[in-house]
Amino acid sequence: MKKSHFVLIILLSIIVSAITARITQTTLKPTEYASASKTSESVYDRIIRTGIIRAGYITYPPAVIKDTVSGKLTGTFVDTLEEVAKNLGVKVEWTEEVGWGAQIEGLNSDRYDIIGSPVWANSTRGKLTTMSIPVYYSGIGVWVRNNDNRFDSDLSKIDSPEVKIGTIDGETGDLIARTQFPKATRASSPQLTDFSQKFLDIKTGKADVFFTEPFFGFEFLKNNPASVKNIAAKNPVKILGNCYMFKSGEFKMKLMMDVAIEDLRNSGFVEQVIKKYEPFPNTFYRVAIPYKPLTIETSSVNSSEAPDLQKKDEPKKYKPKKAR
User: Fold this and answer.
1) Based on the domain organization, do 158 and 235 belong to the same domain?
2) How many angstroms separate the Cα of 178 from the Cα of each of 157, 189, 196, 317?
3) Which is higher by pLDDT, 36 or 144?
4) Number of helices (H) and strands (E), helices first, in the chain?
5) For residue 12, is it within any domain?
6) Calpha distance 203→321 (Å, rounded)
7) pLDDT value at position 154?
8) What is the CATH number of the domain that holds 229?
9) Residue numbers of the domain that contains 111
10) Is this model's pTM higher than 0.85 or not?
11) d(CA 178, CA 161)
12) pLDDT by residue (tens digit) across 134-154?
């Protein structure tokens, strides 16, 4: 056999093998194909397939409250997510408690499908993740010692190296400190530090300022009266939406959650849940209703004479004028 024929036979064998492999690949059984494409399955598709929403969370009262004995979770965000799941015909599995700075990492590695505790919407998270519409809003206060009046009339004075801002790594207060008051000194603490510790730092002089919402300040004041004050109660340093968070690109998941959340807002469920857990009225900012309420003057109308809003105005009967 000539050498050229031998080379040709080898080339033909390689081509045939490649074609056979291609045919085999495109004729996989359904189960084999599903297994092969499992790595590309979206969070939305996985939830629909399994019927389970795996939620990571941060203990963050009153949104996520953890019973120290049973470990059971309750709170505004817990109750809302459980109701969303019920309406969608799926279940919530509270998978693991995470730190502020580790939330996105856990989403990207598929350890859980959603952050089930409130996540404040900001530009950084908008770039790196997908977020739901807000369930409600939080006004971020500026907390200082009760006898410290340096910043009462001018918050810009906080932006000084002599001022120590208490922060928790990965938490939004840390972002506010770095972006809005970059010259100030940050007295930082690890991710899972309790908020009460940061208030204690203000009380004892280890820090001068702490950014957080009113709930935590009033909880601290219950046991430490007249120790700290919120100098931005009427004009919060920032107002942020409390959202659920998923990994970047999960737009089908976002659409599903947005519709379910809006349904609960419009039905009054979210308002009932907020009233159940907020320590005093109007702790949180409600989402404005997207429609104009009907206004009917009933002062001079008896209930029996009230108009039927479902009944269309009947056309007036034509009456021919009498000939003059």
Assistant:
1) yes
2) 15, 14, 21, 72
3) 144
4) 11, 12
5) no
6) 87
7) 96
8) 3.40.190.10
9) 42-136+241-277
10) no
11) 12
12) 999 999 999 999 999 999 999
